[in-house]
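PT: before anyone asks, these are the final sequences, not the draft ones from last week. 530 residues across everything. Please model them as a single complex and drop the result in this thread when it's through.
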Amino acid sequence: MFEILGITSQALFGQLLIGLINGAFYAMLSLGLAVIFGMLNIINFTHGALYMIGAFVAWMLLNYLGVGYWWALVISPIVTGALGVLIERFMLSRLRDLDHLYGLLLTFGLALIFEGLFRQKFGSSGLPYRPPAELTGGTNLGFMFLPNYRAWVISFSLVVCLGTWYAIEHTRLGSYLRAATENPALVQAFGINVSRMITLTYGFGVGLAALAGVLAAPIYQVNPLMGSNIIIVVFAVVVIGGMGSILGSIITGFALGVAEGLTKVFYPEASSTVIFVIMAIVLLIRPTGLFGRSS
Amino acid sequence: MDKSAMLKVSGLQAWYGESHILHGVDIEVRQGEVVTLLGRNGAGKTTTIKSIMGMVAEREGSISFNGHETINWPSNRIAKAGIAICPEERGIFSSLNVEENLLLPPTVQPGGLSVEEIFTLFPNLKERITSQGTKLSGGEQQMLAIGRILRTGARLLLLDEPTEGLAPVIIQQISRTISRLKEAGFTILLVEQNFRFAATVADRYYVMEGGKVIDEIDNAHLEQHVDKLNEYLGV
Ligand SMILES: Nc1ncnc2c1ncn2[C@@H]1O[C@H](COP(=O)(O)OP(=O)(O)OP(=O)(O)O)[C@@H](O)[C@H]1O
Ligand SMILES: [Mg+2]
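LR: through. Structure below.
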């Protein structure tokens, strides 16, 4: 046990852990946004709602079909990703040749519709979702108590984020993606169906959001408003990291979660605004974001 | 018409939005030939090449490749039928290294060159294999842009001004490469401003102006037509 500035190590590490957890969600959500932005050039305002739907799919699987957490972790991203595929295929793809503003408006409208539907059906007080039996309890690390489920969320989301980064930067499929981000017409002229790639990329980004939603369900409860609560912060993360940068969104996501947690320890009054303050400073100094390439 | 025409373009029209660029282009390329499109800046050479590749959204008329009418096909389907493009701006991807750029175009048919054979044609590329694509010199980028479409098995290559802005030694190297590709059985439709260069490789020339073909010249008769060509090209 030790104290810094009158703060116990327990409080410090406790907030650090919460920061890492929030950071894991920021990272997964802003990663999905970055992937989608890279290929489709739109800011996907539906992202928060799809994260919420991901959590609800897990909740419904459990309560309507008796399907538990581990299966939900697989099924929910697929189901929600498929919804994303339909959104891209039947709505967004029609807007491809128009100004990006239209895509933004469409996704914003969809977010409001999804949120409204779930509020109508489930109210806005939040439904409990218990962590899986395998991950209840915790480990005493000596300097703090680490709940197993939280350790799992942090490590699993790190693996997912780094796996996604690796797939994009170091595989054949990833090179198609990067190339199509730069020059879709030429990639298509080499024989690749870019249109299908765009649809699947959107579905993948949505799947990531849903996966984050399932991970979040046992921590924050399942609530129709959970998406709009987190998404504003995630957009700030995206702006700070730089639009479209893959590694940038992962690092920035975790780092800002931690920054938020530490602020809560040392200056709690600022904890909910610190990210936006950082965003304003970054925008002034580096308008393309910390990891963004100016184009 | 000649039955052995691999590519037959007739009455091709093309638009970029409101502007009508091609006004009925007629071109034929036979199996194994090197055919060159000549013409001043803005004559419509690139637009013709891109229309053949399916990269111009609004096109009308007929483009027949190996007997298939491709005028309404999307570019990825045209690529799979065996046509590959080396675009005027080269189109090297900056987020891909040389190796990734080289391996990007998927194989569409068997019979393409191996990566080793491409390195024999362009030894520079082998040395720069891990460099970022756009960090290469202009000449090396051109080699990469040509090299990557040789792997795919495409039999008709569309090369848009491969010598533009390059030093004479590199132009010679590209000229030798085109000759070798011709020997290897590739069919090539080449865009060139410089008919002195084209003369080293071409069998026939089409001269374009104002979105139309205005003349056709055989390589055998090139010398007789030099004055006329100079006039066409405004040299
Ligand atoms: N993307 C585009 N949008 C609108 N007009 C275009 C576009 N690309 C080309 N044009 C116009 O079409 C005409 C033909 O252009 P094209 O590029 O086919 O000529 P070119 O013969 O290849 O010329 P160069 O020798 O300069 O490459 C030009 O007048 C050009 O301004
Ligand atoms: Mg041109």
